[in-house]
Structure formats: structure tokens, C-alpha cells
Amino acid sequence: MNTEITDEQESIRIGEYLWLLYRHKWVVLAFLLVSVLASIWVTQRTRPVYRSSATFIFNTRNTMSQTLNMSSVFWYEMDPMRNNQIQIIRSRSMAELVADSIMRSSYSDSLVSLLFGEIDPPQSNLRSALIGMVRGSSSVSVMKDTDFFVLSATGYSPAAAATMANLIVHTYYRRNLQEARGENTMVMEFLAEQLAIMDIELARDEDSLTSFKEEHGIVSLSSETAHIVSSLSSFETASATSRTEQGALQAQRDYFVDQLETGRLELADDLARVNSAFIAQLESDLASLEASRASLMARGGDEDDAVVQNLDNEIIARRTALTQALGEAAYSQFPDDPAGSVQRLVSDLISIESHLRAERIRESVLRGVIHDLEDSISVLPELELTLIRLERNRTVSEQIYLLLRTKYEEVRIAEAGQMGNVTIVDTALPGGMIKPNRRRNLMLGIFAGLAAGIGFIFLKEQLDSTVKSPEDIENLDIPVVGVIPKISRSETVTRSGKQGLIMMTSPRQAGSESYRDLRTSLRFSGADREIRSLLITSAGPREGKSTTAGNLAIAIAQTGSKILLIDTDLRRPVIHKIFNLPKKPGVSEVIAGIMSVEDAIRETAIDNLSILSCGHIPHNPSELLGSRKCRRLLSELKKSFDMIILDSPPVAVVTDAILLSTEVDGTLMVVGAKKVDRKVLDSSWMKLKRTSAYLAGAVLNGFDPVKMYTSYTYYTYRYHYYYDYEDRKRVKSRIRSLSRKIHKKTE
């Protein structure tokens, strides 16, 4: 049962909403029109914006990594790597690189004019403006299930959008290539510096040796001295090579330090300080092995000797053990990174640190051997000693120069072979317009207009708390005994041209029939009691209580009952005006004993209807109506008339109606449609409920079923039945009149 009631209430609400939309359709259309015109205006005023896109691939493997057999990237590392590249492209540093490339370009002025379009670029802070434009106009996305990236850029013209996208993608390509070649580039720069230095030293040593030989007439050294010079030169070359290798390793070390996270920048220094008894023993073994090898080579040993090869194998084994020991010590302090990037950097740094320590040990040992050889030749004559030193310097410089040249070429080839991770697939072409989107703006205008119009209607409805329909009254638990439709002034005009009551002027109209319905409802509203005295009141003023009282009195009088209509509104009386009767004498004079009730009552043109007007307006109407004389008067009048109807002031304004409600058989509340607030009506009803002997119910006055919603289709049907009938009669009458006029003219 409750479910059926709920469903019925929901259907009523839906019907009311649809009725509201239909009733206020012109309001919705007005909002729609304004919104559409606004969207068209905004579209016309919006500066066009175009978008172009370039496509590139980010390869997780490049040619060099495959050549060097580096560890691959696992599947769970792919998303972080892609996101990292997106953030790099969106970063401020990337925007700064693009801005700098624009400003350094030989076509800088043309590029700036193209990118800014009709807007004058700020010359005082052009770089910052370019950086902001790059960051604000670019976006990056990844094609699903691929390694393809789509880099899009916007601009005020198709060419500007394409230019911006191409500038960003090519700058990103160069940056990635520079990062991929970073290690080799740093080593190559170091080797280039050393080559320039050794080139100068070699030329100086050759000039010094030639000048010395020419000055002293010396052609060559003795065989024994030449052997010493050869040995010393080889060891000096080996020592210089070790120093060069240390420099290259240091350059590599610096590069990897720069690649580490900010929180691990001290990792290289920590690795340099990592030590243990085992590591110290390995370094001592390396020093001993290097010393033994240098001693054998100084005594004339050859690289192919078995003993020398065994020592080389031992040295390699100790270096490998040192690398492993450093790794174990380092990873005990720096655990593996889940993504593997920091782990690989740590591995590279460990390898470099191991080689760096081994080279330092090797250089230290070679320095000792060189020192011993220099001591052995110090006993030679000064002239021969000088020649030995000059020859040695030239030989060492030449060998070091050749070694550096070889290393430089190797690194340069390696750098050229490093292609980076980015491959540009498609450069950007002039794109299409994305702003303003005329279709989208028009749709948004339509939706916004509809939403605003509908929202305005519903908001207005929610803010309107007046009573508008019978359902509003019933929702307050007040029974509705009648509904009086809205009556036009033309229907209540008398023959003399004055305003009257519809029961007298238009007895066949829907309004008159509504009062007859009210008469019937009141007759059967009190099944166990007979209503012989009825108080008619309202919650507030101008709700039509006096008009209702007069029309109801006429409707009951037409049944043959003897009716007395008393105007007990001693503040703003109108009954005497409605029936065109004098105001005095009346109720005030009868209660005061100035005049008898028989003399104060006046007959009307309506059979069986008498009127007792208000009389003189006293200064204390509440006391007068609440007196014993008033109660005695009402009792006497009930004996003389079949029914007494009292028109009283509004309940929410004064207490007169509450006082009179205790002395009558029933009370009828008149509720003006869209005249009284629901809370005011509820409060007035509760006041009467506490004092009245019987509340017959409420009658809704001025209800317009065309302009107000009701779920009771009976009222709407009856309204259209009567009014459509009258309209058809008027149309037919006009047609007949027009036909007669035409007929007379033709005759």
C-alpha cells in the first residue's frame, strides 16, 4: 500500500515538472536564445588557436647498449621510463633549451614574429616570454601499447603550431643524443686537451734534442746507454699512460656522479672511502705484482715471456677481485634500486673506482722503477746524462702523443656510433584549428541555455512558498471542500456597469457552478451535525473571503433556505458595498443596544437572502465580538434563519475570527491562490483548530487550472468544459453577426 502511494506521489511530481516546463516554455526559449547568442559572440571574439603534432619513438635499447651487451630494461620499468620522458619534455629546463635555440637562431626575428603572431613580444623579457609560451603550448601523450610518443603544440596560426612542435621535438632529440654521448664526450674533451699539451711538449722536446746534438756534435748514444734510455722511456711512457687513463676514468667518474640523484651525490666520495682489510690486502697484492712485473721488464724481460704473462693474469685476477669487493662493500650501504637506474650507476661507479685504484697503484710502482733507473744513470758524465734525458723526454712525449691520438680516435668513433634513444618518425605539419570549436560552443550554448532556463524555473518554483493548488493545501493536512476558479472581471459586471457577484451576473459560468459545489460539500461535510451558522475567514487579507461569503450565501438561498449574511469584519467591511447597501445601522448598533436587530437587517434582491452590515466601526472590535451580547445575538438569529453566514477578518492579522469560531457551528477557511504563504496558512489553521467547534475545511479561491498545476483533472476538465463552450458561443455569435452585415450590404 505504501509503495502504491509513493509511486503515485512520484508520478504527480513528474507531471508537475513537465507541466512547469510547458507552462514556462517561453522563459526556457528566452534563456536558450540568449545563451546561443552569447556562445556565437564568444566564438567570434575568440582568437583562433591551431594544433600540430610530431611523432617520435623512445627506444629502451640503442645500438651502443646492444654492442656493449648492457642489461635490458624489464617490462615493469617501461611506464616509469615513459613518464620520465614526458616530464622531461614538460620541464622548465627543456623550455629554456627551446627558447635559447630560438634566440641563437639566425632567423630569430622571423621565428619570434611567427610564434607571437599579432601580439607584440616583450623585448625586455623575451626569453621568459618564450619559456612560458613553450610550456603553455606543448603537451605529450603515449600511444597505447606502443613506444610512440605524440608531441603536440598550439599556436596562433597553422605554421606557428607546426614550428613550435618541430622546435621542441628537435631540441629534445639533441638533448637525448647529448645525454647518450655524455660519457664519451667528456672523455674526448679530456683527451683533446691532453693531445694539445703533448703536441706542444713533443715539439719542444724534439727541438731541444736536435739543438743539443748540433751544439755538441753528438750523433747517437752508446748501445748500453741506449738500452737504459729505452727502458726508462718505456717505463715513463707506461707511467704517463697510467696518468692518462686515470684522467679518462676521472672524467667518466664525474659524468656518472652528475647522473645520480640529488640525494646520492656524495656516493662517489663514499665509494672512494670504502675500505676493508680484504680490500687493503688486494691493493697490496696488486702493488707487489706490478712491482715484480716492472722489475722483470727492467731486466730485459719480454711481453711474451711465460713469467710476465702469469703476472699479467694475476694482476687481472686481483683487479676483478677488487671490483667485486668494492661492489659488496658499496651495496651493503646502498641497496639496489627497484627500477635499476641507480643500481646501474652504482655498478658503473664501482667499476671505474676499481680501475682508478689499480691505475694509481700501477703508476706508483712505475714511479719507483723510474726513480731507480734515474739513480743508476746519475753516475754518468754530465754531457751524456743530459743527452740521455733529452732523448728520453722526446721518446716519452712521442709515445704518449701516439697513445693519446689512438685513444682519441677510438672515443670519437664510439661517440659517433652512439645514436641515442629517440627517433623522430614524423615532423609536424601545419595543423587544424582547435579553438574556437564552433560546434562544441554551439552545443554548450544550447545545453547551458536549457540548463539555465530549467534551473531558473525550478528555482523560482522552490522559492515560491505560496499556496497554488489543492495539493498544497492537502499537504498541510487541511481538507479541501471546494475550488473556485479564477473569475474575470468581465464575468462579474452588472447591467449598471458595476462589479457584482458571479452568482448574480453569470449564474451559468464555471465560477457559479463551483459555489454550488461548495454548497453541496458543506452540506455533507458534517454528517453528524447540522451547520446552521458558518464563519468564513482567511489567513491573510485580499484572499476573497467576502466574495466567497456573498456568493455562497446566494447559492444556499437559491435552494429555498432562509439565509442571513452578517458582516462581522468591523475593521475593513465590504459586504455592504458588494450588495450596494448602507453600512449603518448594523452589527455594532445592535450589540450596543442602539437599534433592534429587526430594524438593522435588510432584504436584498435575492430571494431568501438578508444582510446585516457591520454598522459603525468601533475602536474595540475584538471586545465587542467577544461579548455576551454578541453571543446572545447569534443565538436569537439562529431561531429566525435557516443558516447564518459570518464574514470575519483574517486570522493571521487579528483575533476576531478566533473569538467568533467558538460561537458558530462550523468554520470555513478561504485560501487565495498565490496569495498566502504555506507557513502562514498552517499557523492560522492551527489557531482555529484549537478554538473552533468544527472546522469544515478550506476552499481554494482564484485557482487557474491553465496557469497552475493540479493532479485533479476534474477541475481542469470542468473549466475547459464551461469556458470552451462559452468561447464557441461567442465565435458563432460573431460569425452570425458578420454574415448578417455582409448580407445587408449585398442587398
Topology diagram in text:
Blueprint: H1 2-23, H2 25-45, E1 49-58, H3 63-67, H4 78-90, H5 92-104, H6 108-116, H7 126-137, E2 138-142, E3 148-155, H8 158-180, H9 182-216, H10 223-259, H11 267-273, H12 277-298, H13 306-333, H14 341-376, H15 382-417, E4 422-426, E5 432-435, H16 438-463, H17 470-474, E6 480-485, H18 502-505, H19 510-525, E7 533-538, H20 545-557, E8 563-567, H21 575-578, H22 587-592, H23 597-600, E9 602-603, E10 609-612, H24 621-625, H25 628-640, E11 643-647, H26 656-661, E12 666-672, H27 678-691, E13 695-703, H28 713-746
Note down, in words, how this protein is organized.
It is a single chain. This protein is an alpha/beta fold. Helix content is 63%, strand content 10%. The protein is built from 28 helices and 13 strands. It has an 8-stranded mixed sheet, with helices on both faces. Strands 1, 2, 3, 4 and 5 form a 5-stranded antiparallel sheet that branches. Helix 6 (108-116) crosses helix 8 (158-180), helix 11 (267-273) crosses helix 14 (341-376) and helix 19 (510-525) packs across helix 20 (545-557). The protein is rod-shaped. The two termini are 73 Å apart. The relative contact order is 0.09. Mean pLDDT is 76; it is low at 1-12, 62-77, 333-341 and 714-725.
